[in-house]
Amino acid sequence: MTFSSRSPATLRLAGLLYLVIIVCGLGAEVLARGPLVDFDDPAATASAIQNAVGTFRLAIAADIVMAAADAALAILLYVIFYPVAPVMALTAMVFRLIQSVMIAINLMHMQSALLLITGAPELAKQQAEAMALHALTLHAHGYDLGLVFFAINCLLTGVLIWVSHLIPRIIGAGIIAAGIVYLIGSSLRVFAPAAVDAFMPAYGVTIVAEGAFCIILLSGGTRRRRVRDA
What is the pLDDT of residue 8? Predict the structure, then answer.
């Protein structure tokens, strides 16, 4: 049985999962969590979360869905690219799965912040607010740490796209560029945090590249060359 005879459906399912990841990831950060958190003001952050507990919990739920979809996508991309380069496809899957696990575990920091803000009567208010903001800071750093593994996945996936001929090569180049951005951004968070804000516009590259990858997967890729099972 040829791989190409089943690849369109697999590609479209992968695209659907990628769409879920993008919507949940951006929704959680930009629409739900982001507006509530001010890393320079523990009291304002605590007040905002207390007034929008449902929204904050929605951000946690969205991240859970994103992590689950990301794990499933890691497996599907392995299935898609295994005939191209088995070892590289396996390695890419492992690094993406590591990122998915880290995202899921890192959500404990968000839950901890919520518990401190809404249900820690034994602590003084200012102490609870400071501890909650610290937990949210740890979540942000943990997220960036997970992106180190995702960056490696992007570099490998970009190469796999480039050599597979299932997907246009320009998408592979874009995913490699996204991996470089993620790697630099996460490194700055650890080694040069003062430069993080100045680097933020570069993440536009990741949105464009991953969005294009999602769209081409949803469309079934390109069928100019058939890739057969090993």
Answer: 82
- Please tell me the chain's helix, strand, coil percentages from 3-state DSSP, rounded to the nearest 5: 85, 0, 15
Residues 6+ away with beta carbon under 8 Å from 224:
165
Rounded Cα distance, 96 and 179, in Å: 12
Is 199:221 a contact under the CB 8 Å cutoff?
A: no
Predicted pLDDT at 229: 39
**pLDDT average, residue stretch 208-227:** 80
| DSSP state letters, 20-57 | HHHHHHHIIIIIIIGGG--TT-HHHHHHHHHTTHHHHH
Residue boundaries of the structural domains of the chain? 3-218
Measured CA to CA, the distance from residue 59 to residue 61 in angstroms comes to: 5
The pLDDT assigned to 222 comes to: 67
Residue with the two structure tokens 């991996």: 179
Query: How far apart (Å, rounded) are the C-alpha atoms in residues 63 and 47?
Result: 22
Cα 106 to Cα 25: distance, rounded to the nearest angstrom: 14
CA distances from 88 to 23, 59, 84, 147, 198 (A): 28, 33, 9, 19, 33
The per-residue pLDDT for range 133-163, each reduced to its tens digit, is 999 999 999 999 999 999 999 999 999 999 9
